[in-house]
Design a protein that fits this description.
This protein is an alpha/beta fold. Among the domains are: about 180 residues, 3-Layer(aba) Sandwich (Rossmann fold), CATH 3.40.50.300; about 120 residues; about 45 residues, no CATH class. Helix content is about 60%, strand content about 15%. Strand 5 and strand 6 form a beta hairpin.
Length: about 575
């Protein structure tokens, strides 16, 4: 529940603090005093839209702070995930709106998006304002109310149904996309297969293009290579057919080695001799390699023609499928995998058809179960509401739920089942029941809404023993008065037995049932209007109840207020008057 609500610079309220009790807390005040600002402040904590017009004139920002107690473990986990933490088992939620229009929210001491704070606070309190009466006239809201009353069993069935619904929708989307893309898929398959066939005919090998280019270059330059190799070989080993006996590297190196051998008694000279000998061995190896290279250099026009043709074939592939043969082979591997995937599409469509058929059966079964549970709950909730309406001075009123199934085909199902739920209402005998939003007056809607909330709370407590979230009622008593107002107050007090209830009211008959009573008073010095919120007790509370009853602050009005308070609390009116 909310332990403290502090409002600063919101509308006509400069700074006010309210500490609602665990039962029924009421907020009263003259029209225009600003009592609805309490509901507005709670709405801001719920993530409601803030505006610059809400910021008090002459200030730079408004701020609403809510201190919540009794936080569930699930809520604590969500706060922790957002980076916040509790303060001695209490959760602080802060909402600010600046005069420039910037809006911020803090949850457990850290800044969070408005939606994060609003979602969490939405699990802690709910506001029932005039907009709720408008929503109650909508069939989707009426179904939600019925589903809430049906309890945990329906919630479990509906959750399973909605999971199946989402799974089926995803499967249908995938299947339809595959079918719609069949032409493009066939075109892609033809192109891929053509490319794979073309590559398969050539049968390229990894790195083949580079190797063939080297070979082609050698075959084209064989004469130049032979001349170069022969000249190098002669420079190393003398040409036996050369009568000029030109010096060669081997001969010169042998001369150097012989010269160094004469000084082998010198260690350094001996080392140089060994190094010279090593060079001789290397030079001999080089000469042998050159001789082998030269022997292998033979002109082969036929081989050159084959290599050139092969390179042309490979170039045809690299023009289409990659810069190199290795890239062509990589494309081929990817294309082959893609072909396997596309070839398996028909099988995938068949598998999806079978999956959808099975899900259809599950959906139909789940929808039928939802209809049965709603039908049972509808009778029970209607009977409970009729009892509450009779206590609210509507003894002849009847409320019924009309459940219409859209059909027993999967195409007729929606995300919540096959049911269209509509509340039918009749205020008096002889009238024909009609849609709630069309036949109920504003005062009747207020009482119906209260009767529904009381019935829902009774069911929740009976089934789980858990109290509902904090409920805030804004002008729930609109359009009613007299004895009916007293019954509204009595019902609100009964609702508050199971949880925290905050009510903004203009009726003394309702306010008299409160455990805590706050009054919003407006002062005006001719230039600035300020509203203050303070808890009223004792004589001050009697004075406020007297004002609400008729406006006159007299002994008679106070006696009437004392009598009203005594009736609400079950005490003696004389004692109540004397105590206050």
């Amino acid at each position: 529940m909310i332990g403290e609500l502090r409002i600063r610079n919101l509308g006509v309220i400069a700074d006010a603090t309210i500490e609602p009790g665990p039962g029924l807390t009421v907020v009263t005040g003259e029209t225009g005093a600003g009592k609805t600002m309490v509901v507005t402040g709670l709405g801001l904590l719920l993530g409601g839209k803030g505006s610059t017009g809400q910021v008090r004139n002459g200030t730079d920002r408004l701020q609403v702070t809510g201190r919540f107690t009794g936080i569930t473990e699930e809520a604590v986990e969500r706060v922790t995930e957002a980076g916040g933490e509790l303060d001695e088992d209490e959760l602080l939620v802060v909402r600010q709106v600046t005069a420039a229009g910037r809006s911020r929210a803090h949850l457990g001491g850290v800044a969070v998006p408005l939606g994060v704070a609003g979602d969490l606070v939405g699990d802690l309190l709910v506001i029932h304002g005039q907009t709720e009466q408008v929503r109650l006239a909508r069939t989707d809201r009426q179904r939600e109310v019925l589903d809430r009353f049906a309890g945990a069993e329906l919630a479990e069935v509906k959750a399973a149904y909605q999971r199946t619904w989402q799974t089926r929708r995803a499967a249908v989307t995938e299947r339809d996309d595959l079918r719609a893309a069949s032409r493009e898929r066939a075109r892609e398959l033809d192109l891929l297969r053509f490319g794979l066939d073309e590559i398969g005919e050539v049968d390229p090998q990894p790195g083949e293009d580079d190797q063939l280019r080297v070979e082609a270059n050698r075959l084209q330059s064989v004469d130049d290579l032979r001349m170069a190799a022969h000249a190098a070989l002669v420079a190393i080993n003398a040409d036996p057919d050369d009568p000029t006996d030109q010096p060669c590297a081997v001969g010169l190196l042998n001369t150097a080695r012989t010269a160094l051998a004469r000084a082998d008694d010198d260690p350094e000279a001996a080392d140089l001799g060994r190094r010279t000998a090593d060079l001789g061995y290397q030079l001999a190896d080089l000469g042998a390699d050159l001789a082998g290279f030269l022997a292998g250099l033979e002109a082969d026009p036929h081989r050159l023609e084959c290599v050139t043709g092969r390179l042309a074939a490979l170039a045809g592939l690299t023009r289409k499928y990659g810069e190199t043969i290795d890239e062509v082979l990589a494309w081929s591997a990817e294309a082959a995998e893609r072909v396997l995937h596309l070839d398996g599409t028909d099988e995938r469509i068949a598998a999806l058809d079978a999956r959808i058929e099975a899900l259809d059966a599950d959906l139909l079964s789940g929808a039928a179960r939802l209809t049965a549970l709603r039908s049972t709950a509808a009778d029970e909730l209607a009977a409970a509401v009729d009892t509450e309406l009779a206590a609210l001075a509507m003894p002849n009123a009847t409320l019924r739920f009309r459940i219409t199934t859209t059909g027993d085909e999967v195409a007729a199902l929606g995300p919540t089942g096959a049911d269209q739920v509509e509340i039918l209402f009749r205020a008096n005998p002889g009238q024909r029941p009609g849609p709630l939003g069309a036949v109920a007056s504003g005062g009747e809607l207020s009482r119906i809404r209260l009767a529904l909330e009381v019935s829902l709370a009774d069911r929740l407590v009976a089934e789980t023993g858990a109290a509902p979230t904090t409920m805030v009622f804004d002008e729930v008593d609109a359009g009613i008065g007299g004895r009916v107002a007293s019954e509204v107050g009595r019902r609100l007090a009964r609702l508050a037995e199971h949880g925290q209830v905050i009510v903004v009211t203009h009726l003394a008959q309702v306010a008299a049932f409160a455990g805590r009573h706050y009054c919003v008073a407006k002062t005006d010095d001719g230039q600035v209007t300020v509203s203050d919120v303070a808890e009223v007790t004792g004589e001050d509370r009697l004075a406020e109840l007297a004002r609400m009853l008729g406006g006159a602050d007299s002994d008679a009005a106070r006696a009437h207020a004392a009598e009203l308070l005594a009736q609400a609390t079950g005490t003696d009116p004389v004692t109540t008057l004397m105590q206050n």
